Amino acid sequence: MPEKVFSLTGLSFRFPEEEEKTLTDLSFSVLRGERLVLTGPSGCGKSTLLYLLNRLYPDNCDGLVDGEMELFGKPANDYVPGEINHRIATVFQDPDSQFCMPTVEEELAFTLENLQTPFAQMEPRITAVLERTGLAQLRNTIIQSLSGGTKQRVATACALIMDPEVLLLDEPLSHLDPFTAKQFVHWLEELQQASNLTIVAVEHRLDIWGSFFGREIQLGCDGRITADQNFTPRHPFTFLKRPSAAQPATALCAKELSVTIKDKPLLAPLAFSVRRGEVVIIAGPNGSGKSTLIKSLCGIFEKTTGTVESDRIGYVPQSPEYLFLTQSVQQEVAFSGASTQTELDGLMASLRLEEIREAHPFAVSHGQKRRVAIAAMLADKRPVLLMDEPTSGQDAAALLELFDLIDQRSKEGASFLIVTHDMEFAAGVADSLLLIKDGKMTGKFQAYEVWCNEELLAMHHLLAPKGVARPAESFA
Q1: Sheet holding 88-91, edge to edge
Q2: Pick from 91, 88, 110, 90: nearest CA to 101
Q3: Contact criterion met (CB below 8 Å) for 24 and 222
Q4: How many helices (H) and strands (E) would you count in the chain?
């Protein structure tokens, strides 16, 4: 019988400021070498469960734990803070939250220093993990200059350099382009088979994983286990193709726009325009310049050359907490004062924020944070809205609501530029695709031109969407 890596009996968890438990009466075990996926709606406690398994909670928060949990056959409370972390490595949903050092090499060295690794062993271990993860060329790169997807790969390398027995992954594919995501799953498969690594992952997009997982635990909205079963591979959810609402009038026009930071060209001169009511998907490989483009459009990155002509622009970043200014979700959504109370209530209901309206924006799940930021920008009624990975951390029902809101607002004349790696979502919502690679714009295309062009797809690390005709009534 394989060793039990985790064993939970009647485990519950509650944050002290909350009346309701986040997790309730969880009982299950995980055996060495298992590949387990945790699923369930956004905000149901999946990430909280990961943080209990690695002892981040309650060692580093004031959470209240009931029940029993054993790690490697030993009561969890018997471990001193930090003792378990060289055996259980974690890759968080927001990779920025776990970086301490400026460059990739220094971050890996810092991880080894915390493990008291002899200096002579550091360089070969760093070289080996960089080669294993395909990051050797980024060894001396400043981490904060990397794209969100590349940061995710660096965070994974930092976890693997510890030679852990267990790897906890919180939506590891959410920032990866489709091609890189498939590579990641294939690479993880080889790693797991070679080392008998135990893998526990939180994931919404299960289709890319194929048959990787052997077991699935589903959590309900109340933080209870609703199913513990063999994993069944999923087909991607697809959306009805919305009719275009684009109008002849121009909402945004970029001319000879380029960005160079510290003598490093990030974006070559490009030009394009967006019509009023048009939905444009910005797509391309990780690190190609997608986030740089939308940051330059809204003025976060200073333009080196060129101009941007547009009405008021709203922006939802990859890390939505950078926008938050208030003490509650409802205050955050209402902050601009541009919408009536009736409109605010409708937005809150549509994006499933009613149940967390009194919560602090920093205290909700990552997926909920994104929905709060999206609601705040929609409430501000900006005529042009830029979104960087808005589908990350969202369950299927939340994606459908986002799809409907974009459809509704575009018909009212709002224009959207959306960075996403979710090609099924893109296929449903896009009028056009703006493709970028290596900091250069390949072109702006009608969406249907891209889906049937294998050369364009391969060149930009994209996979054709599986279809666009599943009816919305599936969620009724």
Answers
A1: 88-91, 166-170, 198-202, 35-39, 215-219, 225-230
A2: 110
A3: yes
A4: 14, 19
| Under 8 Å between Cβ of 330 and 361 | no
Instruction: Put the strands of the sheet holding 250-261 in their side by side order.
Output: 264-275, 250-261, 305-310
d(CA 47, CA 260): 37
Whether residue 246 contacts residue 274, with contact meaning beta carbons closer than 8 Å, is answered with no
The residue type at 232:
T
Q: How far is residue 123's CA from residue 444's CA, in Å, rounded to a whole number?
A: 44
CA-to-CA distance for 146 and 138, rounded, in angstroms?
Answer: 9
Residues 177, 461: contact at Cβ < 8 Å? yes
β-pairing, 415-419 vs 384-388, is parallel
Tell me the DSSP string of 59-90.
HTS--EEEEEEEETTEEGGGSPTTGGGGTEEE
CB of 389 closer than 8 Å to CB of 371? no
* Identity at 418, one-letter amino acid code: I
Find the Cα–Cα–Cα–Cα dihedral 450, 451, 452, 455, rounded to 10°: 60
Residues in a beta bridge with 198: 166
**Predicted confidence (pLDDT) per residue in 205-231, tens digit:** 898 899 999 999 999 999 999 999 999
Amino acid (one-letter) located at 353: L
| Nearest partner of 181 among 461, 452, 436, judged by Cα | 461
- How far is 421 from 71, CA to CA, in rounded Å? 36
DSSP state of 103: B
Cα(149)–Cα(284) distance, integer angstroms: 11
Question: In 10 A of CB 253, how many CB atoms?
Answer: 14
Average pLDDT over residues 181-188: 86
Residue 274: per-residue pLDDT: 97
Burial class (CB in 10 A: 0-12, 13-18, 19+), 455: exposed
